[in-house]
Amino acid sequence: MGDDMKDGIKIFLAEDDRDDSFLFQEALNKMPYKTTLLVAQDGELLTELLDKHTAPDLIFLDLNMPKKTAIHA
User: Fold this and answer.
1) What are phi and psi of 66, to 5 degrees?
2) CA distances from 45 to 15, 20, 23, 63, 67 (A)
3) How far apart are CA 60 and CA 47, in angstroms?
4) For the whole model, what pTM was predicted?
């Protein structure tokens, strides 16, 4: 994270479950930090976010997602 936190913490969340995404956002809202959350519902959308936006401060990944699973059977 950069030295200047006035713009807040930029977070990418890769999560295909809407309830889990909602709970994640609710938890962030209770933190004493300004945050910007961008959510990708699958691995391809996460790749697009990474290509189109400046690098986030944090990335939270659901390891079992449609279109780009970390573990292949």
Assistant:
1) -65, 145
2) 10, 17, 20, 14, 9
3) 13
4) 0.78
